[in-house]
């Protein structure tokens, strides 16, 4: 039972991670551009504006990708929420690097 | 009772005439339903409504007796869209390991004679037919019971058409299929029920001959 739940969790994370990997390069590029004014903004742009703009751009320019996730039983909202959490964690991991 | 059932489906695009009005369609496991109709009559829209990604103006969808708003969230319904949907930057192996959970299922697909040769290739480098074939195999590897296939044969080479037909027939014992395609002969060969979408409604066609009255020219099925 425990291994089944674990396997299920891994599978769910795999889907979120796959989606997140498509968003990440766009987010990094956007965030870098927007935080040119002040590096202090980097984290906040990365976890909020940059992320949501990347999600919008991805779903606008690559509309067909939604069928992959829908066929796996994931709604757009669920995907965005899951990858938002991953993005927050990724952002938090890299945040201390900005102080170095 | 296992069934994908939709009734009174109505749909119209903004400021346009009514595309679908009171459509009834159902599919049970073991059935291959051919959904035929002219260009722009609403076949793809109907399939999207059945999948749950297009909101109808009116109507109800029942999945195994339960009323449901978004059938795709149940993982019981899969949809093959008209256009390619796999990311072109990924390789065939990457997509197989991403979309399939079951190890046996993965191995079975990887040992497929057609895909075996292109496993390490990027999706972008595959032919249109190979991409359709891969998409279909990936969907059939899901645990869904109902499959909505939108033009699975279009742009596909004849030998792949046959492979796709064999695949559908192999899985049709346990799964239900609704297939729409302009290549009606490819669909009719494997279907056991025909529906014609016409003037916003679905008409049940008893046999190929009846199609001559409504859809294809007289004498099409003479021999």
Automatic annotation (TrEMBL), chain B:
Entries under InterPro entries matching the protein: AAA+_ATPase (IPR003593), ABC_transporter-like_ATP-bd (IPR003439), Metal_Ion_Import_ABC (IPR050153), P-loop_NTPase (IPR027417)
Q: Which organism is it from?
A: Sphingobacterium faecale
Keywords attached to this entry: ATP-binding, Nucleotide-binding, Transport
* Single GO MF annotation: ATP binding
Q: Which domain of life is it from?
A: Bacteria
Residue ranges of every copy of the ABC transporter domain listed in the record: 4-219
Q: Which PANTHER family match?
A: METAL TRANSPORT SYSTEM ATP-BINDING PROTEIN TM_0124-RELATED
Q: What is this protein called?
A: ABC transporter ATP-binding protein
Parts of the chain that traverse the membrane: none
């Amino acid at each position: 039972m425990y291994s089944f739940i674990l396997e299920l969790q891994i599978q769910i994370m795999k889907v979120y991670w796959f989606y997140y990997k498509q968003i990440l390069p766009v987010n990094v590029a956007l965030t870098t551009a927007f935080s040119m004014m002040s590096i202090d903004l980097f984290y906040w742009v990365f976890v909020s504006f940059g992320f949501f703009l990347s999600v919008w751009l991805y779903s606008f320019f690559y509309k067909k990708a939604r069928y992959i996730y829908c066929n796996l039983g994931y709604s757009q909202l669920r995907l965005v929420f899951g990858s938002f959490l991953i993005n927050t964690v990724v952002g938090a991991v890299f945040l201390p690097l900005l102080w170095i | 009772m296992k069934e994908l059932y939709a009734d009174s489906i109505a749909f119209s695009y903004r400021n346009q005439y009514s595309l679908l009005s009171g459509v009834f369609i159902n599919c049970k496991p073991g059935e291959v339903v051919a959904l035929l109709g002219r260009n722009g009559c609403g076949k793809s829209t109907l399939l999207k409504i059945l999948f749950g990604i297009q909101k109808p103006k009116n109507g109800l969808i029942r999945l195994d007796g339960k009323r449901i708003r978004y059938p795709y969230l149940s993982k019981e319904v899969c949809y093959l869209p008209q256009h390619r949907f796999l990311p072109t930057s990924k390789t065939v192996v990457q997509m197989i390991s991403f979309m399939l959970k079951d190890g046996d299922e993965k191995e079975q697909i990887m040992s497929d004679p057609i895909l075996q040769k292109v496993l390490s290739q990027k999706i972008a480098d595959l032919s249109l037919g190979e991409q359709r074939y891969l998409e279909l195999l990936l969907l059939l590897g899901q645990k869904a019971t109902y499959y909505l296939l939108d033009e699975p044969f279009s742009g596909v080479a004849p030998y792949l058409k046959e492979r796709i037909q064999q695949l559908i027939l192999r899985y049709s014992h346990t799964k239900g299929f609704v297939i729409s395609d302009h290549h009606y002969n490819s669909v009719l060969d494997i279907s056991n029920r025909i529906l014609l979408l016409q003037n916003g409604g679905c008409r049940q066609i008893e046999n190929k001959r009846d199609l001559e009255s409504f859809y294809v020219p007289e004498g099409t099925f003479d021999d």
